[in-house]
Amino acid sequence: MLIHWHIDPVIVSFGPFALRWYGLLFAAPFLAGLSFFKRVFREEGIAEDGLDRLLLYAVLGTVIGARLAHCFFYDPQYYFANPLKILAIWEGGLASHGGIAGLVCGFWLAGRKFSPPVPLLWLLDRLALPGALGAVCIRLGNFMNSEIVGKPTSGSWGVVFDLIDQVPRHPAQLYEAAGYLATLGVLVLLYARLGRRTPHGLLTGWLLALVFAVRILAEFAKEPQAAYEAGQAFSVGQWLSVPFLALGIGLIAYALKRPGTGSAGPRKRNV
């Protein structure tokens, strides 16, 4: 069965301003995450006065990290020759590996400003659920944009991205989204079972291990994203995923050896 995909990336426009599917799906997990953190902070007795800063640092860290990773890993020759184009984020080009690294940096900076400071791994564990949701939304956004397309199929089935060409392709974006949705399900079950007793690093470890295992597998169905990776056995995305996968496995092992570390530390309720 062939599906012809021809969706306008712009939902609605107002003069020079446009609301795009990708932008909407990019913003949704941040807003959902803020709501989730408010609930978790209330339930676990953590002061909520730093949540707005946490959201701001998370957004800035994600966008800056994702942009720099795209420029330096996926098209370095172009951006070294045109360094000012690094700032042209409206032209597209974000890499999820850099986004995750930037997000962690943002959480580290914001966590230090809580009074008392909140452990980074505790914050990242609570980020794991909206983080997995964010991974689903980003790949759905790529699908709506007809970007990061899959390799051609046999021709009897697949998705034809009419904005790209008339070749039936693997819907690699949906493969990844499905894998990340399954990851979200695992994390929800773990947190529902352990709650505030979740050992520090456990949810973060499972998030990294599962997300990047899915990413490595899904890359086999994708067209090359960097010009210089054509003909290589493994893609740039796969090579970049290996350290994150290893870190995830390491965090799971770390957490299982410290089952009593679930608390966020000294608690300070709002007054």
Main pleated sheet: 3 strands, mixed
Question: β content, as a range?
Answer: 5-15%
Taken in chain order, the helices and strands follow as: EEEHHHHHEEHHH
Care to count the β-strands?
5
Bulk shape: globular
Q: Runs with pLDDT <50, length 5+?
A: 265-271
Question: Which bin fits the share of residues in helices?
Answer: 55-70%
SS field, number of helical segments: 8
Structural classification: mainly alpha
From the structure above, extract its key features.
disordered C terminus; 8 helices; two-stranded antiparallel ribbon; 271 residues; mainly alpha; 58% helix
How would you describe the overall organization of this protein?
It is built from eight helices and five strands; from the N terminus they run E-E-E-H-H-H-H-H-E-E-H-H-H. With about 270 residues, it is mainly α.
Ordered list of secondary-structure elements with their pairings:
Layout: E1 2-5, E2 10-14, E3 17-20, H1 21-44, H2 51-74, H3 76-81, H4 96-112, H5 120-144, E4 158-161, E5 168-169, H6 172-194, H7 202-218, H8 236-256
Parallel strand pairs: 1-4
Antiparallel strand pairs: 2-3, 4-5
Helix pairs in contact: 1-2, 1-5, 2-4, 4-5, 5-6, 5-7, 6-7, 7-8
Précis, in short:
The chain has 271 residues and is mainly alpha-helical.
